[in-house]
Amino acid sequence: MTLLVPAAIRDALSEHARAGAPEEVVGVLAGRHGAAESTVSRAYRARNVADRPTTRYEIDSETELRLLERIENTRLECVGFYHSHPAGPPEPSDTDARLAAWPGYSYVIVSLAGGSVELGSWRWNGDRFDPEPVQTE
User: Where would I find the MPN domain in this sequence (predicted)?
Assistant: First the structure.
């Protein structure tokens, strides 16, 4: 499993995370989804509607549906989702695992811990997150 992320998309995710701090930001990733390799070609921002946005993220269900339809209409596929950890590592939290709902899809975490930006990607297998290498093009 590998996630290919163009540098421009990586930079856009980083910019979104920085602009939203200290709250977590969230969005949907589109491109080509595959079991062994996925490629991100677009990132769609969504508003974080979580009750505690400094430590949680949530996309409104109507917004999520609208974004998924938009992705389908552009003949792309949903690759996964991204959110930020303004003060934590680029690793899924227990809450992230409890709320994960898309087996086989990528969950990218943009960490701002320590003042630098780091991306981590994880594939949800239905029971746990498996690490997924991120390759920047």
Answer: 2-128
